[in-house]
User: Fold this.
Amino acid sequence: MSGRRGMDEVFKALADGSRRRLLDSLNTRNGQTLRELCAGLEMTRQSVSKHLAVLEAANLVTTLWRGREKWHYLNAEPINAIADRWINQYDLGRVHALADLKRALEQEPMSEHEFVYTTFINTTPERLWQGLTDPAFTSRYWGVSFESDWQVGSEVVWVMPKGVRVVDPAQVVLVAEPYRRLAYTWHSLTPEFAKAYEMDPAEIAKLAGEPRTKVSFELEPRGEVVKLTVVHDGFAPGSGLRDSVSGGWPELLSSLKTLLETGEPLPQAEPAEASPAGG
Assistant:
């Protein structure tokens, strides 16, 4: 989804009060089944299904199958895109409702255990796979180079800014289906990492004590664009790392999208701001 048509679908979806209530429900507790959404909003299954189809078409809701159940997640990407491309060009007083929604989506933790984000990129699955794995690409928009052969079970070494290498046998590729799916365990938060980013050693030690998480990427061709769904999960309740990566992923993925579509990533102020804990 891109351009004027995509914006029209978002505004159309947001214009309906029932659909806004569905988004509010997911913003309160992200990751719900159709049955849970129906019960929470006292709407019929048919009505909820129709509204969810509109929200999903506008990319405001993304879905994941867990066994036989379909889970629905709020996706902030379209609101971020509208704010970035439109709000700053006009009188903020006339679009305060949209700005408030953007802030709500960004500030409220949408799930304690996982972060889900979907975007559409005008590229090919092959090019997007390269953008996720090739150091020549990742270093430009992420500031990180990966050393791996991207085979299941292989180690993934993170080469961070200032030459910091994050090496850990537990950092491995979990899924590798070229141009379709990629998943790996998240990197270790080492003292060297903390020093490179000038982080409080006590804080980095606290984050390092949390359970190991993982990130997965699902690439789905949609005509001339590719739907990219990122799921970062395995967080403990009240995770500080969850808060960190949820702030970093939207900016990171926007920069990847811009790089693949224009040839240049988004400007970065400081790597530590874009990726405080690798998000």
Notes: Confidence is low (pLDDT under 50) at residues 90-97, 269-277. DSSP finds twelve helices and eleven strands in the chain. Residues 14 and 20 are 6 Å apart (CA to CA). The longest helix spans residues 240-262.
